[in-house]
Specification:
The complex is a heterodimer.
Chain A lengths: L3 E4 L2 E4 L5 E7 L6 E7 L5 E8 L5 E2 L8 E7 L2 E6 L8 E8 L10 E2 L3 E5 L1
Chain B lengths: L3 E3 L3 E5 L4 E7 L6 E7 L6 E7 L4 E3 L3 E6 L4 E6 L8 E10 L5 E5 L3 E6 L1
Classes of the chains: A mainly beta, B mainly beta.
Chain lengths: ~120, ~120
Amino acid sequence: GAVVSQHPSRVICKSGTSVKIECRSLDFQATTMFWYRQFPKKSLMLMATSNEGSKATYEQGVEKDKFLINHASLTLSTLTVTSAHPEDSSFYICSASLAGLTSTDTQYFGPGTRLTVL
Amino acid sequence: GESVGLHLPTLSVQEGDNSIINCAYSNSASDYFIWYKQESGKGPQFIIDIRSNMDKRQGQRVTVLLNKTVKHLSLQIAATQPGDSAVYFCAEIVSRASGAQKLVFGQGTRLTINP
């Protein structure tokens, strides 16, 4: 149980285009989903937290207009990288939790999406 | 500040030996810590967690130790196997002023198990 999927697993796009990444909780309803970014050989950095039906909360330094997050249902959140540039190339990982992030709740991670912007 | 860091970026261990991965955290108010394993090209996998009211917790071949006095966390893996080769991250739950919480990851340690 508690499986989170991401699609696509890899994407290559041209500079200036937009890319959408999907995150789905397959066997549970996720009230809260999180989006992380990971550069090569680096740690995961939280980009934003999204709750179903409300606006995402972005971390300091993350551009809201560049990284659009939609959490329209309890099983799906999407991250759209708008007008992508080579510096946006990274490994994007989502996670989902049942009832937000508390000390008693577990966060389940997706397998990640490798974005390469040419 | 809120940061969780690793003492050693890489660690090589002979198969069958025990390994210890260390982590230092800075937020003394944190009350929940988690160790994750990340294999190449994959998302993090939960290994074991520990709350601040404990100083030791054991799982299958893994033990987490928490020393709140010096804000230090360690992960011990017993009888290492080739499949243990991965990057290991410690993470802590950090509370914001709003009451919401977020997961803060450490830098990670790459563990290599040598045959």
